[in-house]
Amino acid sequence: MATEPIPALQFQQTSSRRTALPALTGVRFFAAFYVVLSHSLPWLAMRFRMPWPARIFLSNGYLAVAMFFLLSGFILAYTYDGQISGSSNRARFWEARFARIYPVYLLSLVLAYWFERGLHIKTQLAVLTMTQAWNPLSPETVGAWNYPAWTLSVEAFFYLVFPFVLPFISRRTTVALRWIGIACLVVIVFGHTPWEGLQNRESLDSAGSLIPLPVWRLPEFLLGVVLGLYFLRTDSFRQKPSRPVTVALAVAGILLALSLPLGKWVSLVIIPCAVLIYELARANNWLATILSARWMVLLGGASYAIYLLQFPVRAWTRTLFQRFPPSLQPLSAPLTPLILILFSIAVFRFWEEPARRALRTWLDRFSSHGNPTSASRGR
Question: How far apart are the C-alpha atoms of 360 and 51, rounded to whole Å?
Fold first, then answer.
């Protein structure tokens, strides 16, 4: 899943004029935890009488993935516009993305392996290479090993095409950007890509299932790219008047769309999601202030681990609690979210970030051996 903070700017000439967008890091925690809560719906429904809007809201937690794809496109476009041209820069981008996502991805597979030891070797290879969602003829591999990892397979496809897509879209006029954004919205809303994409992993009965899942979800990512480029051209370097009403309407629109029985038309949620991401990037509003707080940025940084580790942490917590006295075993389910958050913060601080830096250092040295001039290039 494309659940990533804004990566460090890679070139000296742009680092001085593009500021960090901490609110977009903070909001990732709520999106990731929404997914975690949605997977807790069966447990909650068995123990509490839930009003139907709350039940619908929790059942729609998978739609946070669409927001992650949108957010990923926005952040990457904002960070890398004007910086990717030529094969060497594309390679450096892919190196940075690999170092960013693979350490936690691999950790999630290691922790989940005890519970998924019977997988076929082809399925294991597909998951290890992050291509499990690329083959529409093998829908059974999409959620294999660690179910949430299918979104990282989709993100890997986005990363593959991004260095070619960004320069093309970046050369369009501002008016053209608007039309491309509208076209993406039309495909997402009327194609029901957030809803259909999830359903299509189950079977090959619908026409949309003939399209590999990453391609089907590409409009969500491209909409984020367009928004990021549009933001750079219109709002990133100007005095920005506060628009608190717009932010409140976007939040209300998201909550309303996710709490009503809309069926496939829940894809409409992408519209207020796009508005919210754009407004949080502008930063001059009450919600951006809250999400930019230090503790929220920390939780947002840990959100990638929260999302990917939710299933192995739940499985290991349940297994460990079985060794406790019977009176304590029911505490396993309600304590799992807290354990997951604390463990993910530790993973973020002591595994994800150190591993990313170590991988980047190793890749720098590897590149310098392969290309004598690469050691002097800014990264």
Answer: 49
